[in-house]
Amino acid sequence: MKGLLKGIQSVLVAMVLLCMIGTGVILWFNKGDDEDVASQPETETAVTQAALDPENAFPDAIPVSTISENNPTVSTTEKSTSGHTHSYTPKVLKDSTCMQAGQMKYSCSCGDFYIESIAPLEHKAGEFVTIREATTTSTGLKQQKCTRCGAILKEETIAKLTPGKTDTSTDKKNKDKDDDHVHSYVAEVTTEPTCTENGVMTYTCTCDSSYTASIPATGHPSRQTIVTEATCTEPGTVICSCSICKAVISQDSTSALGHHFGEWVITTQPTKEAVGKLTRTCTRCNEEESKDIPKTTDPGSNHQHYFNLEVTKEASCTEGGTYTYTCSCGETFTENVNAYGHTPGNWVTVTVPTEEGDGLRQRICRRCGEVVQEEVIKYTPAHTHDAGYYTKPVTVKDATCSTPGYRVYMCKECGASYTTEIDKLAHKFVTNRDGTRTCAYCGIAEP
């Protein structure tokens, strides 16, 4: 009897062991499925994030300068057109979103402007939200969306609940695989953007699931400005157009400049028998304007002589000159100017005397450069100048109102000299026969 009980007990222990081993195998099998499913969202998340990344989503989009949401960076561009330097002021036309770029307009006070894109914002991730609860037969699903635009940023699988018993049927396994599918989207540009119209980017999964995103319009990325300069009588134009679609973006006009005349010039001198003519010319377009000058004998002419001085013959140190005075009416007279005379400079030693021979020194005219005086220098032993050797000046040149004078002092012993200058004289004005006053010394007119 005891042997029978021991046998039954051994059988029960063996059955319990078999049940425990079977349960472990089943749990290990289910754990492998969960691990496979749990590892898939990383792939799906990477694909989804890449699909939502503006740089990957719009590979053909025009690059734009980055402007953050809270601190837009404004880059002022200056360029010169016909002397005018543009200074642009920015203004936001359209705020950027996660999926679409914004627009910033830069305007100059002259009417010129251009538009640049503002980079799309980065997605702002929210909390994970459960989309499908897990059961004992299928996994669940939770998603993380952008709080700005609602785009799906991440998806994660929720593991199955622990089953009460194991269902190993083939249909059940296939059903679980379908429930565990993770989307893997591929982006394709289905509609190219233009300067004014948005394009379309389509994202497609192998399961035929798809969604679309907008590609911002390029906003005339290449521009050309044609400036037609204004003239004295015609207005100018400033036209900004797109070099791609040829659309005119802005057009403005500038006022005509108006004539800019120079000074009146006598083109025909008046005489006792005929009127004269004054003419002035526009410095921009050469348009001329003229008016008559009354005859010099006309009582209403109020003509007063105004003589212009012209040096018809320049005076020199040895020859006199001639000055000619001419009025616009033709009246003229001449004045003879005496020769200036030489203006000797300081003594200059040309040859230094030695024990073997005499030396030579010269004085050269400061005005014409001719030698006006020269002397032989006898050799004498070197000595030290003494104040007693200098007496009254040996040469004196009186000052005039146009040139200073000078005095030359010489050493009795060796002939060495030095010069002191005499200040210019004041002008001496005298009245001429025409009523004008000029300096008797230099001929300059009284101011």
From the structure above, extract its key features.
single chain, 447 residues, alpha+beta, 3 helices, 28 strands, 36% strand, elongated
Question: In a few lines, what is going on in this structure?
Answer:
The chain has 447 residues and is an alpha+beta fold.
Tell me the structural class: alpha+beta
Strand content: 35-45%
Q: Measured on Cα atoms, how large is the radius of gyration?
A: 54 Å
Q: What's the total number of strands?
A: 28
Separation of termini?
159 Å
Could you tell me the mean pLDDT? Answer: 75
**Largest sheet, order of strands side by side?**
3-4-5
User: Low-confidence stretches at least 5 residues in length (pLDDT < 50)?
Assistant: 23-80, 165-177
Question: How would you sum up the global shape?
Answer: elongated
Count of alpha/pi helices: 3
Q: What does the largest sheet look like? A: 3 strands, antiparallel
- Portion in helices: 10-25%
Give a structural overview.
The protein has 447 residues and is α+β, with helices and mostly antiparallel strands. Among the domains are: 35-68 and 81-219, no CATH class; 222-258, no CATH class; 265-301, no CATH class; 387-447, no CATH class. 15% of the residues lie in helices and 36% in strands. It contains three helices and 28 strands. Strand 12 (223-228) and strand 13 (236-242) form a beta hairpin. The chain starts with a helix and ends in an 8-residue tail after the last strand. Residues 23-80 and 165-177 have low confidence and may be disordered.
